[in-house]
Write a sequence for this structure.
């Protein structure tokens, strides 16, 4: 298994930190890409941060009320080694399907 | 370009190590690990190949084992990755750079075409370029734009480059070991849709384990030759099984080396079957299938039962994931191609 850290991203407009309001996932949860992870509040607004990837939440940093700086650890994901960091999806091996049938006269072969 | 590889084949040598069950990722990782251990001049560099271990885990653990001076991350600048590799080769190193995805190779084309491919010629042999450029290639993983392209014809057209694409874990391991021993630059196209496929891999155990130049017969057959490389080899093997249900005995030729092309292997196979279909993911026009078809025609014109058929991608930019299955040659399109050849009538 591989551990992938997710630091607090740059939330834009010169914001340098955010306050944790409420965790929407817990350590040990399996999350999907784009699933809301946490509600945070900046000096501009409150917002939900979507998960950048699927995986198991290994660790969450900061209790409600704690201030996290941009770039500091927010979540650590655990993902299987063979899918860590992948762009796209692992193709499924499927039994071959066909509609076309072959016919030939091979008498002179 | 000489038609033979700079590394002599060892012939079929008795393997000294037991086979391992590995994915293509694992097989390539093992090959890189052994290359780094055996060759102190070998270096692995690219985006995320160090700390992360590569987006496809191919370089996983190599930085920790061989040191971050020999396996290192680069900035997001493909021209820089290749430029650095060229300079390192001039200084006597054997770099193995990675361009993270096929479509990211375009910013490095100037370095590859104008410097890497020519330095040996320009210097009259005093500055060989033993660089193996790994490029995760072709489509099939539902990835965004620039992550599913087939650049073999682009690079095969450039004098001074060799181009190779493995089709399974054993080929990945063996061909990467072979490429890294060459004095010429090699573009090593890894079929990313096959990274997770497992297979038996017999390590070299100190000696090259089998014939590594030219093509190989992946499945023998009598009636028709399917020519493919990379991920299309596995699909053609499926097609061959289905064709057998209809009484058609299909030979699958895994071309492996896309530059230089193994004309002797093509002639031997099609000389026997007298029918050929070339399959590739790349767009049709000026694709490598045209070159393969012409080599076959030159060598087998008198015995061919039908013109060489091509089953390819389309002349459009590689589509988004939702349309990928419509673009990449599927089983039915390949079977149609076979049927067209089977029912061809002269005149």
């Amino acid at each position: 298994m591989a551990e992938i850290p997710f630091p607090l991203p740059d939330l834009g407009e010169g914001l340098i930190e955010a306050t944790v309001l409420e965790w929407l996932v817990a350590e040990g949860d399996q999350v999907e890409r784009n699933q809301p992870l946490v509600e945070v509040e900046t000096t501009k607004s409150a917002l939900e941060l979507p998960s950048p990837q699927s995986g198991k939440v290994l660790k969450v940093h900061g209790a409600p009320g704690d201030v996290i700086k941009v770039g500091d650890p927010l979540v650590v994901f655990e993902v299987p080694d063979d899918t860590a960091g992948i762009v796209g999806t692992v193709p499924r091996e499927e039994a071959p399907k066909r509609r076309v049938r072959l016919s030939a006269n091979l008498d002179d072969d | 370009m000489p038609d033979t590889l700079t590394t002599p084949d060892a012939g079929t040598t008795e393997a000294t190590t037991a086979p391992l069950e590995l994915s293509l990722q694992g097989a390539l990782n093992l090959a890189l690990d052994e290359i780094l251990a055996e060759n102190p001049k070998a270096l692995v560099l690219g985006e995320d190949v160090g700390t992360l271990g590569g987006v496809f885990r191919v370089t996983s653990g190599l930085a920790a084992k061989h040191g971050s001076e020999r396996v290192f991350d680069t900035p997001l600048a493909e021209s820089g990755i290749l430029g650095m590799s060229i300079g390192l080769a001039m200084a006597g190193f054997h770099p193995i750079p990675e361009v993270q995805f096929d479509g990211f190779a375009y910013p490095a084309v100037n370095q590859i075409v104008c410097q890497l491919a020519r330095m040996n010629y320009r210097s009259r042999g005093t500055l060989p370029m033993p660089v193996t450029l790994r490029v995760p290639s072709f489509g099939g993983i539902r990835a965004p734009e620039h992550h599913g392209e087939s650049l073999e014809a682009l690079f095969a057209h450039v004098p001074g480059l060799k181009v190779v694409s493995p089709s399974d874990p054993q080929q990945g391991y063996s061909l990467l070991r072979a490429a890294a021993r060459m004095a010429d630059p090699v573009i090593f196209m890894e079929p990313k849709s096959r990274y997770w496929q497992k297979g038996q891999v017999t390590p070299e155990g100190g000696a090259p384990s089998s014939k590594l130049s030219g093509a190989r017969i992946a499945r023998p057959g009598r009636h028709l030759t399917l020519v493919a490389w990379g991920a299309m080899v596995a699909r053609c093997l499926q097609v061959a099984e289905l064709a057998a249900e209809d009484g058609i005995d299909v030979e699958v030729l895994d071309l492996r080396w896309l530059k230089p092309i193994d004309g002797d292997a093509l002639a031997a196979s099609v000389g026997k079957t007298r029918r050929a279909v070339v399959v590739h993911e790349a767009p049709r026009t000026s694709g490598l299938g045209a070159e393969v078809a012409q080599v076959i025609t030159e060598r087998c014109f008198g015995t061919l039962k039908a013109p060489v058929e091509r089953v390819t991608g389309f002349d459009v930019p590689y589509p988004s994931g939702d349309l990928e299955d419509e673009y990449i040659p599927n089983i039915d399109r390949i079977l149609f191609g076979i049927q067209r050849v089977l029912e061809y009538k002269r005149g």
